Each structure stands twice: as C-alpha cells, then as structure tokens.
Amino acid sequence: MASDWSSDQLGNLVQFKTGKLNSNAAVPNGRYPFFTCSQETFRTDTCAFDTECVLLAGNNANGIYPLKYFKGKFDAYQRTYVVTPLDSSKLNTRFLYFAMRPMLDYMRSISTGAATKFLTLTILKGLDFSYPPLPTQRKIASILSAYDDLIENNTRRIAILEEMAQAIYREWFVNFRFPGHENVKLVDSPLGMIPEGWEVVRFSDECQIVNGFAFKSKDYVDEGTLIVRTKDFSSTKYINITDPIRLSDELLDKHRKYSLEELDFLLIMVGASIGRFGIVFRKDLPALQNQNMWAIRPKSNSSFSRYYVIQTMSDLIARVTNFATGAARDFYRKGFFYNQEILRPPDQILEGFDAVTSPITDLIGSALQKNENLRTTRDLLLPKLISGKLDVEDLDIDVMDPIQTTEEASS
User: How confident is the model at residue 322 (pLDDT cuts 50, 70, 90)?
Assistant: First the structure.
C-alpha cells in the first residue's frame, strides 16, 4: 500500500441508513427498484431515496450478504443498509462499493445470530477501511466499472436475444404464423384450433423429467465437478454460480447419472422459489444436479429439439404457475406435467424453428461466456487495486460515469 493511503473505521467515513418497507412490499412492474436482503432486485411503486449509494443486506439465513451499487430513485427493505460517504471530497461512492466487496467474507465470519445471520451497525462501523486520495479512487473505480459496464451491456443484449427467440416462438406456435401458414387451414383440437397436420400430444410423449440428488456437504471439495443448487438460479433465465460447491472425482462415477447436459431446462419444483428456471449452457458444464429441481430435456426418440423444449417449457410454466400443491411447502408433481397437452408440429416446421433460433441461442451462450470471462478478470484485478498492490496513480485514465446499476456481489 502506498504511503499516501489513509485508514479509518468505516463508521467515521460513511453514513448508514435503512429502508422502512417490509420485504413483501414488492409489486410486479413497480416504478422503482426495491432493494431487500435478496440477491434479486425487486420493484415497488414507492420511492424513499434518490441518491448514489452502496446497498448492503443486513441479514441473511446463510450469512450471504448481497452488495449493490445504485444511483437514482429507489426504496429499500428495513434491514437493508443504504451506505453513503459522509464527505464526498474524501470518499468516492463507486470506490466504496468496490472496496467493500473483498470485505464480505470477513463480514460473514463476524456476523451474529444462529438461524439468521445479522450485520449490526456496531460491526459495520468498526470495520477498518483503507483508501487512497480521491483522484486515485476515481481511477480504480473507473477501471473496475469498465468491466461492470461491459457485463451490463452484454446482459442487455442477452435480454434482447431472449425476446427475439420468444417472439418467434409465439409467432409460429401460438399465433400460427409460421412460414407457409397461408396454405394451411386450421382444424379443431383439444387445444382449440390448430394447423392441419399438427398433433396434440402429452408432455410425457416427448419430454423426460430427471430428478436431482441430495449431495452431502461432507463430500464437497475445492477441486472437482460443480454441483448446481437452487441458490444458483439467478433472476434471469441462466445459472449464476457465485459460491461454487464441488464433488470429488472419486465420487463422480457413482453420481454420473445426475450429470447435466447442454441446454437442459432446469426447473425448481419445490419451496419458495418454485417455478424459477434456468437454462444450462456450455460454460456451466460439467456439472451435477442437486435436489429440489428437475432437468427437463427431449426424450432420445423425440422429434423435439432442446430449442423447442426451452420455449415450450417457458410457455408452459407461465400457464401452470398456480398448480403447485402441498401444505408446508408448495411443490410440483411430475404427473401433472406429464399429463399436460402440448403441440407437436410437423418435423419440417421444427427444423425450420431450430434453424432460426439456434444461432440466437448460440449468441446468448457466447455473451454469457464473455460475461463470465469479464467477471473472472475483474475479480482478479479488484483485490490488487483495492489494496494498492497495483498502483494506478500515474496512469492516464479517462474517468467516466458508469452505467447506473451494477451486478451484485455477495459473500
């Protein structure tokens, strides 16, 4: 660390406020972001803050505290800390966000509570915090923000590509405006009017549902095959492993039947996150499937492709969201899904759909891989920059305003 860096307790440098809302204050398509102790950012129609800040979860069952940066109008849960510098001429907010990220593991280790872990103000205010002069802070923040901005831009491209694939699916298989539809008449079926030559089949005729396995923590190792858990399902439709666990190679053969395959459709089938799904891309493999989720894929003799299954499942989930059963915890039954009626278009239509949507899916996978590479590089740079081991004071860096939001970090 350079001699011009300073050090103080965090409580002398920042102000801590909390929101006033309950965690159930979220509303679909709300006007403003709503920050809670969840990894996901929700929406609400109220706005109690309009500022640039760092948002830190104050409690979590596993001591995993989401950390986020935001600039603008928002609202917050009553156990979410809204952290702002006391003196903006001494501490840059964006630098504060990046500097707090390496502190999350330590916060987790010293947090209090048994069933739920808490970060108290006493803990937070007493944390040691080192920082360079403001110009150097801005350079460090600018370097790291560039990575976050590229990740955010890729994420937006992914959303556009998703919508393109969904729009094609709806146009062909919901509105029946597929290539050549003008020459095909509609006929009656159990699902209503469908194109002549199309069939209504049961879900079980074309797709299989594969259970996961309850892997034991005693078998986890530092090096081995990834295990995908329900906590790895992000708010998007993709797997996001931030806290990886792995199975030893010695046990892999015993559990190989739980291996995931590229473009598997993973569905959480029980608990609070029921109905959330994720799509497995090459970047996620090799990996094994944990309990409380299904892997859904075409049967080996099916004419369905994985591209068609992904879109069909997305549509089906939207239609059956309210059909979970159970007392203590909601859950889906396999039989319910297997008995669902779905469309089986002619092979040439399915082949045409694959030809159009497979390049879109490949672009999504490529963008996800780029994001993973960007995160890896950024996370290698971050501790060196924040500790001062990598000196940027003499670098000629154009300091620009970052994109408004950032991907959250967590312990």
Answer: low
CA angle 256, 260, 264 (to 5 degrees): 155
pLDDT band, residue 179 (cuts 50/70/90): very high
Computed from CA positions of residues 296, 302, 308, 313, in that sequence, does the dihedral angle turn out positive or negative? negative
pTM score over 0.85? no
Cα separation, 98 vs 81, whole angstroms:
16
Phi, psi of 333 (to 5 degrees): -100, 140
Nearest partner of 26 among 80, 69, 63, judged by Cα: 80
| pLDDT score for 391 | 84
Distance of CA 190 to the CA centre of its chain: 37
Distance CA 44, CA 25 (A): 7
DSSP 85-120: ES-TTT--HHHHHHHHGGGHHHHHHH-B-SSSEE--
Would you give the end-to-end CA distance of the chain in angstroms? 24
Give yes or no for a contact between 65 and 410, defined as CB atoms under 8 angstroms apart: yes
CB 109 within 8 A of CB 123: no
pLDDT exceeds cutoff 50 at 65: yes
Angle between helices 134-173 and 306-320 (to 10 degrees): 90
What are the beta bridge partners of residue 130? 7
Cβ-contact 312, 345 below 8 angstroms:
no
CA distance 369 to 136: 31
Compute the radius of gyration of the chain from its Cα atoms. Answer: 24
Mention every residue, 6+ apart, whose C-beta is less than 8 A from residue 27: 43, 44, 45
Mean of pLDDT over the chain: 89
The Cα 28–Cα 239 span in angstroms is 22
Phi/psi at 389 (5° precision): -65, -30
CA-wise closest residue to 70 among 87, 90, 50? 50
* pLDDT classification of 328: cutoffs 50, 70, 90: very low
Distance of CA 149 to the CA centre of its chain: 17
- 187 contacts: CB under 8 Å, gap ≥ 6: 193, 194, 195, 196
Separation between Cα atoms, residue 26 and residue 34, nearest integer Å: 7
* Separation between Cα atoms, residue 96 and residue 16, nearest integer Å: 13
